[in-house]
Amino acid sequence: MKSRLYLILFALMPFASARAQSNHSVYAELLGNGLIFSFNYDTRFANKPDGLGGRIGLGFVGKGDDGAVLVPFQLNWLLGKNGRYFEMGIGATYLGGTADFFDEDIDHFVGTMTFGYRRQPLDGGFMWKAAITPVLADGFFWPYYVGFGLGYAF
């Protein structure tokens, strides 16, 4: 478990070094890289509305102590202009859950990708996204998983 925490912290290092910029968004995502539901923060690594960036999220499914924590993180690329972008990304989602929620304790990563459309106004405001988000796990590939996000860009 401790080595998994270090791996997550290492994956988050690009977010810590991101400069102050006006290309941020926060959004809730149904399905997608958070697998069920997640709240996410997304930023560009350069002070421009497109190009390389990253996201980190947090989700929970269950009730009380009986459930699973979901932590999606991803490097992504926005290609487009005027607030209309094709989004491509690759990353992983950490799953940690209890034996009461699953058949056994869960502590592993699932690979994720994103191929979709993002509408994010240049001057901030309401943003939305829709994507095909393939999932890769131990001997399992689900190419037609989808995700939908609504949020705010600033």
Write the H/E string, N to C. HEEEEEEEEEE
Cα gyration radius (Å): 15 Å
Major sheet strand order: 1-2-3-4-5-6-7-10
How many domains? The number is: 1
Low-confidence runs: 16-21
Structural class call reads: mainly beta
Query: Could you say which overall geometry the principal axes of the C-alpha atoms support?
Result: elongated
Averaged pLDDT: 88
How far the N terminus sits from the C terminus, by CA atoms, comes to 35 Å
Number of helices: 1
Helix content: under 10%
Largest sheet, described in full? 8 strands, antiparallel, barrel
User: How large a portion of the residues is in β-strands, by DSSP E?
Assistant: over 45%
The CATH C-level class name: Mainly Beta
Count of DSSP E strands? 10
Q: Could you please say which CATH topology applies here?
A: Porin
CATH architecture assignment: Beta Barrel
Keywords:
single chain; mainly beta; Porin; eight-stranded antiparallel barrel
Overview of the molecule:
The chain is mainly β. It has a single domain (2-153), classed as Porin (Beta Barrel). Helices cover 10% and strands 62% of the residues.
Summarize the structure.
By secondary structure, the chain is mainly beta.
